[in-house]
Amino acid sequence: MEQNSIGVFDSGVGGLTVLKSLIKTLKNENFIYFGDVARLPYGTKSEQTIKRYGFQDAKFLIEKNVKLIVVACNTVSSVALDYLKTIFNIPIIGVIEPAAEIAVEKTKKSIGVIGTVATIKSGKYLELIKNYAKNRGKTIEIHQQATSLLVPFIEDGWKESKILKDVIIEYFKIDDFINKIDTLVLGCTHYPVIQDLIEDICQNKVFVLNSADAVSIKVKEILEKLHIESKEKNKKQKIEIYVTDVNDTVYYLTNKILSDVLDDNEIHKKIKLVDIPD
Ligand code: DGL
């Protein structure tokens, strides 16, 4: 009998950066990805709306019988994870906790977090980084910066442009942000797409942390702890991708992110358009 899949959702296709790492780490598992492209961005919405959207996204995956959900969206993970856990009766894992834990391990003394307005405003990274630091007896400074303009640039495919570079440099200058930190958390699913550019701007003075790998390791641990990992070895992984809107950006980003793990010819065919009832 085929094992149930792992569900992964995001406000768009940026969360495929998390799916990619999951596919590589959990080779025996099948995955169902849901990207709510039609309603992106979530990061500028109110708490109430983010919770409502998060609920609908999780429900879509639960109706597909997934055994565990990964909330790949930093905004939903910051604002609505606790709420979703009280409603649904399957394991739900967000991206903030694993990233906060690794950031505390890596830093010498000062962590910076960049993300959407909703993520930064929620203070979730602050709270979890402080908790992990306290448990490890480390004294850590935390600096946060909302970087709202980056998602539209990435969505528009302007990832190598000089303007984007200048925008990032301007954000990093605010309150001397970049000079105050030694570790930078990419607190948004889209940012790994421009990780090279960010690293280039940081000139090796700052360790740049992409949380996707941290999340995959956490998911592996939880599957094993709950004895729900797939036992089917050496099989071809089944990957399904559902989105609420399809446009050139969806194809561009999906190809760009998944081309290392999926055959180029398969990627377009996998994207299926769905509607999500309000
Ligand atoms: N997926 C969102 C996040 O990780 C970024 C895009 C959005 O604002 O919806 O925060």
* Distance N to C terminus: 34 Å
Q: Strand tally, please?
A: 10
Q: What's the CATH architecture name of the largest domain? A: 3-Layer(aba) Sandwich
Identify the strand order in the major beta sheet. 4-3-1-2-9-10
Based on CA atoms alone, the radius of gyration comes out at 18 Å
Bin the helical content.
40-55%
Features:
single chain, 278 residues, alpha/beta, Rossmann fold, six-stranded parallel sheet, four-stranded parallel sheet, globular, binds D-glutamic acid
Question: What does this protein look like?
Answer:
It is a single chain. The protein is of the alpha/beta class and 278 residues long. It folds into 2 domains: 5-94 and 213-273, Rossmann fold, CATH 3.40.50; 96-211, Rossmann fold. It contains 12 helices and 10 strands. The protein has a 6-stranded parallel β-sheet, sandwiched between helices. A 4-stranded parallel β-sheet has the order 6-5-7-8, sandwiched between helices. Helix 3 links the parallel strand 3 and strand 4 (92-94). Helix 2 packs across helix 3, helix 4 (96-106) packs across helix 6 (124-135) and helix 4 crosses helix 10 (212-225). The mean pLDDT is 93. The protein binds D-glutamic acid (DGL). D-glutamic acid (DGL) binds at residues 10-12, 14, 40-43, 73-75, 115-116, 119, 151, 188-190.
Which secondary structure elements does this structure contain, and how are they paired or packed?
Layout lengths: L5 E5 L5 H10 L5 E5 L11 H16 L5 E4 L2 H14 L4 E3 L1 H11 L3 E6 L1 H6 L1 H12 L5 E6 L3 H6 L6 H12 L9 E5 L7 H8 L4 E4 L1 H14 L13 E5 L4 H11 L5 H7 E3 L5
Parallel strand pairs: 1-2, 1-3, 2-9, 3-4, 5-6, 5-7, 7-8, 9-10
Helix pairs in contact: 1-10, 2-3, 4-6, 4-10
The structure holds D-glutamic acid.
